[in-house]
Automatic annotation (TrEMBL):
The keyword Transmembrane helix applies. InterPro entries: MATE_fam (IPR002528), Poly_Biosynth_Transport (IPR050833). It is a multi-pass membrane protein. Keywords: Cell membrane, Membrane, Transmembrane, Transmembrane helix. This is Polysaccharide biosynthesis C-terminal domain-containing protein. The keyword Cell membrane applies. Its main location: membrane. The lineage of its organism: Bacteria, Pseudomonadati, Bacteroidota, Flavobacteriia, Flavobacteriales. It is found in: Cell membrane. It comes from Flavobacterium sediminilitoris. The chain crosses the membrane at residues 9-27, 33-54, 75-96, 108-135, 156-180, 192-210, 222-238, 244-267. Pfam families: MatE.
Length: 276
């Protein structure tokens, strides 16, 4: 349900607004549909959460004294910062492309990013499904079962993203032309972004593992280091290579923080995070 709201339902207000404004109204009002759509979805999700909390029986809340508000805030704070940093990794290159090359190039590159994020959605969706099991097995110190869950999840993520990635790479020009002839200029950047996500899929559940095994603070620091590297690479490469430079910066940074997390987990927990 979480992923449906985050990756599907949140686009409904913009989609409905686009249809309505195409036939009647000011196209600039699409921004209002985007903003108020988030507010509307926030109200709906709040109601759903409150209904589900009411249905929880009293005996299921015996742990509330141990898991208090302060502990929740401390855990969520690092997770929230990590998510914010990942958002910035997807934004710094757009700001610099806008500064150096204007709106058109930003539009082309943003489409490539959006197509690539379909693969990210697969990683997040399957990773979240496995996250509670990862936390449970980690706390119970069932290393063998934990390894099986990790490898099984990573394999499924990799298979789906590999198939989807190959399709995107083989038919990239055709897909980009759907949005306009000029969008083909983002072809090389799209292929590189997709390739980096295929590589990332080898270790698909690594972000969830870091967050669900009391490694939120380390994960936050790794992501912050990745952000600094990303900014430096973008400053150097974007003026020279335009969209391809942005794609190179993101791909290097993306693979860097993933491999660093994988190395840390292997040193700390002696667990291999790959698909084999």
């Amino acid at each position: 349900m979480s992923e449906l709201f985050r990756n599907t339902f949140k686009y409904f207000p913009v989609f409905i607004g686009s249809i309505l404004l195409t036939f009647h109204g000011n196209p600039e009002c699409l921004i209002d549909f985007f903003i108020y759509g988030f507010f509307f979805l926030a109200i709906i999700t709040l109601i759903i959460i409150l209904i589900k909390l009411v249905k929880i029986e009293g005996e299921h809340l015996d742990f509330c004294n141990e898991v208090n508000q302060v502990k929740i805030i401390k855990s969520s704070y690092s997770m929230g910062l990590s998510s914010l940093i990942f958002f910035l990794l997807l934004s710094v290159d757009v700001f610099l492309l806008k500064r150096h090359f204007g709106d058109a190039v930003v539009a082309y590159y943003s489409l490539a990013i959006k197509l690539m994020t379909f693969m990210s959605m697969v990683i997040i969706s399957f990773g979240i499904n496995a996250s509670t099991k990862i936390a449970e097995l980690y706390e119970l110190k069932k290393v063998e079962e934990l390894t099986v869950v990790i490898k099984r999840s990573n394999r499924l993520i990799f298979i789906i993203n590999f198939i989807g990635g190959v399709i995107l790479i083989l038919f990239s020009e055709t897909i980009l032309k759907i949005f306009g002839a000029d969008y083909i200029l983002a072809d090389s950047a799209l292929k590189l972004l997709v390739l980096s996500q295929i590589i990332a899929s080898f270790f698909g559940v690594i972000p969830m593992y870091m967050n669900m095994t009391n490694k939120q603070i380390v994960f936050k620091r790794i992501m912050f280091l990745a952000l600094l590297i990303n900014i430096i690479l973008n400053i150097i490469l974007i003026p020279k290579y335009e969209m391809l430079g942005a794609a190179i910066s993101f791909s290097i940074t993306n693979i860097f923080w993933i491999l660093l997390c994988v190395f840390y987990v292997f040193i700390k927990d002696k667990i291999k995070m790959g698909i084999f």
